[in-house]
Design a protein that fits this description.
This protein is mostly beta strands. Helix content is 0%, strand content 46%. It is elongated.
């Protein structure tokens, strides 16, 4: 008869450990990837503030689009509208930080 009692089960919730703190490393991220609507979201986290240059290149290294982003620092998302007529496939977004001599390459796929 005890197994049919309506209060035979109960749940106790205890929070014994604090929630982890998420630390974002400085850097760049592109999302969504693959790109479907011609809009690239470039997330910038903890980078040096200043004028950044971006260049979209194809697999032959040809520049298809370029531009500049003024980044104030902190964590932000910049939206880049890609030119119409880009074929589906793999590309690279090259990002050049202020005062840098070498670009950071981020692969992107356009669908």
């Amino acid at each position: 008869s005890a197994s049919f009692a309506g209060n035979r089960f109960y749940i106790i919730f205890k929070n014994t450990t604090p929630a982890p703190v998420v630390v974002t490393k400085p850097g760049f991220t592109i999302f969504p990837n693959p790109i479907q609507n011609g809009l690239v979201n470039l997330q910038m986290n903890g980078m040096e503030a200043g004028l950044y240059q971006f260049t979209l290149v194809n697999n032959m290294g040809q520049t298809l689009q370029s531009g500049r982003i003024t980044y104030a620092g902190g964590n932000t998302v910049e939206q880049i509208e890609l030119k119409n007529g880009l074929s589906k496939g793999m590309y690279e977004m090259l990002l050049l930080a202020p005062g840098a001599k070498k670009s950071t390459a981020l692969p992107i796929m356009i669908q």
